[in-house]
Amino acid sequence: MKRLIVAAGGGGDAVAAAMLHAALYGDEDQAVILTYAWDRLLVDPVPGPRGPDNFTGLEQLTPAVWAVPADARPIAPAGSTLPRLAAELPHTFALIDPHHGAEGVTRQLEELVSHLSPDSIDLLDVGGDILARGDEPTLKSPLADALTLAACCQVNSPVRLLVAGPGLDGELPLDDVRGMLGPLIHTFTAKDVESVSSVLEWHPSEATGMLAATAQGVRGTCEVRDAGLPVPLTDEGPTVHQVDLDEALSRNELARAVLTTESLDEVEAYSREICGYSEIDYERNKAGWLKVQADTGLDADSVLSQLDEFETEARGRGVTHTTFRHLTEVLSLSGSHRDSLRQLLITRRPQQYAAPLWRIR
Asked: Mapped to the 3 state alphabet, what secondary structure does the chain carry?
């Protein structure tokens, strides 16, 4: 059997898709995971998503769909987590190309369905921001999810929309999406996390990291992103719910607007009009700021002193956990130091490592 899972927002959604496949489908033939090559600037310093032209070594699956194998490489200065995912996980990672708008992504999906004849098609979003209207003040990155939702609604095959870890992306509070959640499909457990635990040691996704942490029993409040958003870690964290696909489209104004788009520029224009911004613009601005930011290196004593100060302040805000991505940001380190920071902290203070999160003392 063959399963097709669409990782709605790319990034950590692709890792969650692998965990979902292991939990729901076990050891049957592995999935094709259709996902964006769109990593945050800690990994890819080039704003926006990558297309096939940004890689070498891709494998063509259909005229419009390319797989990213382990030996593929992003063309510098771009970066991507997908080749390493392909090396460490048994699935096929196929590349969503958003540069031809929703019509292009729909074409990719139709070609894959024809090529694979999959037994199921799941559209997976971690957190639930795929259910956003577009005007929520906490919404930060609606574009990718809206585009995949628009495409999946136009495929002439049944697509099941799944939301894992409602509220965990820090964009829409659980109470905002709870009313949209349908049947409980699965509750992730520590055993389910085993299939991706080695990936979460290095992958920078915060939402999927919190999904895995809650599956392993972690509870509290996790501070994430450069803005320091507080995300509750509750019993709802490890759950996976089905959501009616048509209801999601009816709610998501941006997804409806981009249904007939033929370019990423069009999608961005609609995002600016409906949501008031495009997250690619945000990445463009931040990339410019990071270029002029001084890289002071990683001095262990200085880092631990700054960490103590941060933890004191975080405790005062009721924070119990954070991510290594957030720590990299608050300690004013460049993305290249994230792994070194993680190793330093785990070595010096192993009792605070609540894999894959960091526990505030």
From this structure: CCEEEEECCCCHHHHHHHHHHHHHHCCCCCCEEEEEECCCCCCCCCCCCECHHHEECCEEEECCEEECCCCCEECCCCCCCHHHHHHHCCCEEEEECHHHHHHHHHHHHHHHHHHHCCCEEEEEEECCHHHCCCCCCCCCCCHHHHHHHHHHCCCCCCCEEEEECCCCCCCCCHHHHHHHCCCEEEECCHHHHCCCHHHHCCCCCHHHHHHHHHHCCCCEEEEECCCCEEEEECCCCCEEEEECHHHHHHHCHHHHHCCCCCCHHHHHHHHHHHHCCCHHHHHHHHHHHHHHCCCCCCCHHHHHHHHHHHHHHHHHCCCCEECHHHHHHHCCCCHHHHHHHHHHHHHHCHHHEECCEEECC
